[in-house]
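Supplementary Methods S3. Complex input for the adenosine monophosphate-bound model.
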Amino acid sequence: MHIFREIAPLKAYLNQQVLMGKTVGLVPTMGALHSGHLSLIQRARTENDVVVCSIYVNPTQFNNLQDLQKYPRDNARDFKMLEEALCDITFCPSDAEMYPETSLLKFDLGDLDKTLEGEFRPGHFSGVALVVSKLLNIVLPHRAYFGQKDFQQFKVVTRLRDELKFNTTLISVPIIREFDGLAMSSRNSRLDVEGRRRAGVLYQSLQLMKTGLIRGQSFSELKTEAAKLCLENQLRLEYLVMAQKSDLTIVQHVVQPENTILLIAAYVGDVRLIDNLFLA
Ligand code: AMP
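Predicted complex, serialized as structure tokens:
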């Protein structure tokens, strides 16, 4: 596996590959890799000649300095996992390489940025849009892979691609979960044993609501039940909502199950976790 820390040599290398007729797949990550990330790499591996994984903890998408400072980092372990997953290239830039000067650009993503993660993490998606734009411009991938776990992020990146005419096909990959349903996340490593047990309640809440909705129970009744479960397990709920998959409009009743998603964000201690579940 080739490891690049600078943009110019990576671009030169990829340019050569493309001139030889090879296709390029990009998996953007912030490192501290787990099986969720590896499923993106595996999918990219089956669909492209050259697989690039970027590892970059992007400061502009963190609205909370503590979260940025405490974000787990372990490059040596990540490189080993990527090597075993048959990733071809890791792009691991420094902050100075990605942001040689303080960035001036801010993205206004309209309603997409004002709801859910956008509401609770102001500026987060502007930072995501900025770094994804940089990565797409640097790597010029034929395909880029994102997890369904960050569903709203996929909507933002899709909008970015459409408006800015990036020539990249975007692929959303299903959520990989732990034995108790907890969505895999780099932040899970910050949970202590008790926190880890309680974190399973995010998925339990989503499941409880999905089962109830399919049985015909009302959303508000189920939400009260799920909120109680969260409270009993000392989860601090930020949101637990039902929305249209197509545009993330919040809804109170199921109209089209196939266009409906349940989304949750909650703190377990000082660790903020998110998850979601499609209704159909
Ligand atoms: P992150 O390193 O957290 O920025 O995640 C990098 C990519 O991996 C994003 O597209 C995430 O949506 C995706 N990802 C994170 N966790 C999971 C998971 N449990 N299953 C599938 N994809 C995931």
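The mean pLDDT is 97. The first helix runs from residue 7 to 19.
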